[in-house]
Amino acid sequence: MRFFFHFTISKLHLSRVLSCRARCETCVKRSFVLQWTFMAPTTSMSHARRGDNNGGAQEAQDDQDEPWSFVGPRVRDFSLGASAASSRHSPGGPGGDDCDSSSSDDDDNDANLGGIPKVKGKEKYDPHSSSERLKAFWSRVSYNSAVHAHLSDEAERLRAYREGLSQQARWDEEMERVKAKLGEESEWKFADDAATKQREKLAAQAAERVARAMEEEERAEQQQRQQQQQHRNRQHQHQQHRHEQQQTRPSAIATWLSHEEQFKAFADDPPSAVDVNVVPWPPTPWDHILAAPAAILLRGDRDRDDPEVVLRAYRKAFRALALRWHPDKFEQMFGSRVDCCSPTESQKVRERVQSLAQAIQAAWDACTNTHE
């Protein structure tokens, strides 16, 4: 059911056809190279449409007898018509001047020209007929419409592609603009942050300097107040020492000197049993227990009115009494003799020694607090 025909007209052979009035079979065969592909109906279907029951067998016999019988009738008619037209209109061919007189003879011999018989029951193909021209016209219109539609689609796709490229370019440009803007904003923000941090740093440093200055000022004021208080305390202590010295003269000094002699004798030759009544205790009251020994140290000193000299005398008196009446020291010197007494007496001696040591420390603390 399929026949593939490739039909093209060679320019060289076509010129020979147009220039040669005699339409021989050999020239026609050489003029057409089968390169045009189209579908032609089979012989059986062709004869069936014509109503010929023996068409298939007859057509097969014709194909064996004639080499051009496989070409459809329209192709055969076209080849014959083209040959006749070329012979009629060729100016250089033989008999070119009387082409009109020979046209009727050519039409009569068309059936036997080139060994191609005329198809019975079919009209000869006339390319100049109105029906064929109309068919060709509508074929060209359809083809042009299809081409126009295809070109329109291609143009639409091209336009869409160009619009896509343009939109992509605009997007890229907008993206670059946004990136540049973000970069500038980042730089500005970084600069603002740096300036803000610098201002905060300077403000913190200024606040720290102010706080340090306030602390130094407060410390200076506190030191000044302390110095003033110490000065007042020294004056008060000096006056108190002068008053104590005045009160300790001469009886207090004589009493303390007598106590010193008694304690020395007690330490050199203590009794076998030491009770509360045997121990030579310092003269009372013990609130100013350092005044008498300090006054004794200041006798004959020309700078006895100087607070520093007075404080130094009190320090010496404190060291001597603290060493003498320290509980551990007293226990080391007289502990064995204290134990010879009754437990009650021994307990009384130790408690009084502890109280005397505390009184000496309290007197010295009061003296130092006054001089500070």
UniProtKB/TrEMBL annotation:
Residues 1-19 form the signal peptide. Keywords: ANK repeat, Nucleus, Phosphoprotein, Repeat, Signal. GO terms for cellular component: nucleus. Residues 97-110 have a biased composition (Acidic residues). It is found in: Nucleus. One of its GO terms (biological process) is negative regulation of canonical NF-kappaB signal transduction. Residues 231-241 have a biased composition (Basic residues). Residues 120-130 have a biased composition (Basic and acidic residues). Residues 45-68, 82-130, 204-249 are annotated as: Disordered. InterPro entries: DnaJ_domain, J_dom_sf, NFKBIL1. Coiled coil: none annotated. This is J domain-containing protein.
